[in-house]
Automatic annotation (TrEMBL), chain A:
Signal peptide: none annotated. The keyword Mitochondrion does not apply. Residues 17-133 form the Histidine kinase/HSP90-like ATPase domain. One of its GO terms (molecular function) is kinase activity. This is Anti-sigma regulatory factor. The keyword Cytoplasm does not apply. SUPFAM superfamilies: ATPase domain of HSP90 chaperone/DNA topoisomerase II/histidine kinase. Keywords: Kinase, Transferase. It comes from the Bacteria. Pfam families: HATPase_c_2 (PF13581).
UniProtKB/TrEMBL annotation, chain B:
This is DRTGG domain-containing protein. Homohexamer. It comes from the Bacteria.
Length: 136, 114
């Protein structure tokens, strides 16, 4: 089962729609609630990241018999220093993002903690791709 | 702690959600930082916050939080109420500060997450 979502830059009112849809679907599939929570937290953080930091992007989720794989791809600007971005507490978020209750430098570490497999690739001026997977 | 007890102790008003459902909260947490809320792996939590926006309701949905108490007269927007009713979140508003809400609930036996 494949799902695709567009994620618009700066539109916080819609951030969480993809995570919400995926959560409902996993509930219907009667996946263990603990597994659902971990993956939806990761997806939600990734969604907020695209809204907060990028010029926009998309999310692809694929559910198979043994787990869920998510690819989150944005169209830039790319992350300058991935190692720093992965450190808890490091953030380049604007004041507006912080006012929304995010931007404390916990997003990527939170994704890493809540997923079984996680890779991040980024190129300045091109964009960032996050791929993560959780097994059921 | 029963939802009715939380409402009474904090002098709260229910603005969204089904209070008839048997909500029994085991622990409470307070934060305005949603990423912090998303690190919790405890169940049946009350979240006490001063952040009143749509992301609060989304965060509660993803973090499996059943009840949110908006402190110090922060008002839930119509969009927040609509989304809370859709996701089944109970939203409460209290005139008490985060500190006072936490204090009174702690004193009456609602345990902290940390």
């Amino acid at each position: 089962m494949k799902l695709e979502f567009d994620i618009a830059s700066g539109d916080f009112s819609k951030a969480g729609r993809a995570s919400s849809r995926i959560k409902k679907m996993l509930k219907q599939l009667q996946v263990d609630p603990k597994v659902i929570k971990r993956i939806v937290v990761a997806i939600y953080e990734a969604e907020v990241n695209v809204v907060a930091h990028s010029v926009g992007g998309k999310m692809l989720a694929e559910i198979d018999g043994t787990g869920i794989t998510v690819i989150v791809q944005d169209n830039g600007p790319g992350i300058e220093d991935i190692e720093k971005a992965m450190q808890e507490g490091y953030s380049t978020a604007t004041k507006a993002v912080r006012n929304m209750g995010f931007g404390a430098g916990m997003g990527l570490p939170n994704i890493n903690r809540n997923t079984d497999e996680f890779t991040i690739e980024s190129e300045l001026g091109v964009g960032t791709v996050l791929t993560f997977r959780n097994n059921f | 702690m029963k939802l009715s007890e939380i409402i009474e102790l904090t002098n709260a008003k229910v603005v969204a959600g089904d209070t008839e459902k048997n909500h029994n909260l085991l622990r409470a947490f307070s934060s305005d930082l949603m990423s912090d809320v998303l690190t919790l792996d405890t169940e049946h939590i009350l979240l006490i916050t001063g952040l009143a926006n749509l992301q609060l309701v989304r965060t509660a949905e993803m973090a499996d939080i059943e009840v949110v108490l908006l402190a110090r007269n922060k008002r839930a927007t119509p969009e927040m109420i609509e989304l809370a009713n859709e996701t089944g979140l109970v939203l409460l508003e209290t005139p008490y500060s985060i500190y006072r809400s936490g204090g009174v609930l702690f004193k009456n036996g609602l345990a902290p997450v940390y």
